[in-house]
Amino acid sequence: MRELGTLVNPADEVEVGGKRVEPYAQASYLLLNKPAGVVTTMHDPQGRRTVADLVPSAPRVVPVGRLDYATTGVLLLTNDGELAHALLHPRFGVEKTYRATISGRLTDDDVRRFREGIVLGSDRAGGAPVRVVSVQQGRSVVDVTIHEGRNRQVRRMFEALDHAVLALTRTRFGPLALGALPLGAVRLLTERELAALERHRRPQEHGPRTNPA
């Protein structure tokens, strides 16, 4: 077709310069409460269950960041690539809150080291505020908030202080809270949540964020 104003039907295939033009897909934003034993990818060569098995097949969305195989909780999936990139931008440092069940109990020194930052091999994790929720029968439930996205960061921080992580759930990702969403369930983001995410769209417009001491 070479005439201006030509209408294209949804079933038509359009090519420009020999390359197929894909139709515009409306932005979609889903919040998943990821269960344990699910891989945070859309396809797994080992045949394991993935988050793709828990969300609608259309429109196509992808996870923003990752949760470990054994970690549960808040996972955002979207086809809005610009927003996904901004949310993962290390300069902006989107807050992520986790509830961890760990062995033993945190000492005052453990809390201090969390707030000052913990050496993880050749790396150093930034300071992270912690709050002890409960302590009973040789284990503790603790909330911790980080601004980075290092591989297995929360687990490694506790392990560096000799506390094994028995269970780990991400309860918040930026302005998105887990709330009462059942394990394995998915829902659309609310208008309020979408508006809150918009301030993260262009992190370069904000100054660099520092971790709390």
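The record above closes out task 2.4. Task 2.5 opens with a second protein, given below.
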Amino acid sequence: MTDPLQLEGYQHLYSGKVRDLYAPLDPRSGMPREDQVLLVASDRMSAYDHILETPIPDKGRVLTQLSLWWFDRLDGIENHVISADAPEVPAAVAGRAVLVRRLEMVPVECIARAYLAGGGLEEYQRSGSVCGVPLPPGLVEGSRLPVPIFTPTTKAPIGEHDLPMTDDEVQATVGSQLAARIDVLTRRILARGNEIAGKRGILIADTKVEFGVDRSREDHTGGPLVVLADEVLTPDSSRFWPADQWSPGGAQPSFDKQFVRDWLTSPASGWDRHGGEAPPPLPDDIVEQTQARYLEAYERITGQTLP
């Protein structure tokens, strides 16, 4: 992974699989502010708990701009955005950075599924359920679920696997009130996403979101405000399928990073997913096709070209 940019007026805090976090420096004291974070989306690609050697051009801008587009359309769901424009966002990262409120992050990966794919499919094939939620027999890859379900996982450090969590485990981790709230909000985001994307010919099979808690404010229940953070309904965090090609019973065409996962596990890559070695660099044609898929996802959903 390349070293993060040095941004004047900001202190680098942390680099994740895709994003770099910076604290704005207080102009009077020169100390990092504790209430705000600059969230910068890179072009790094992660897959199977590895950060790949090869970046995908335009990826950081797609994730940032598509998230901002969705934030404006998720009515009634508080988000963390302060500003995506100058002067709060430095010119060096314009278009792929957002100044956000610093939150107490919920230590759960919040996933909602409307269709069966990926890790959910693998778990269903083993147990007939996903994260303790029983499902009808006879479902296959790509099947639409009777109702969308909440299937959270742990938040593992980089290089380790996220593990499925049952509702009881989520409650034990964050408490029953917060567990119920993130369940409802995650499924609401997926439902709203499908309501909008469906009109544009895209099915959102599943999505992963993150929440933080703002203890300085209360929600309608009288508890601390739960805030949507990080990204939302992007090709990195969701499976986007063309609706007119949906056909249960096998892998679905997609506008997301599943394309990269599929190449990595194909004979063409020569990589053993379970062998412990880092994945190989992506060939130019895979990079170009992945970039094209991300841009098409943005354009289909928003009806706009990437600014």
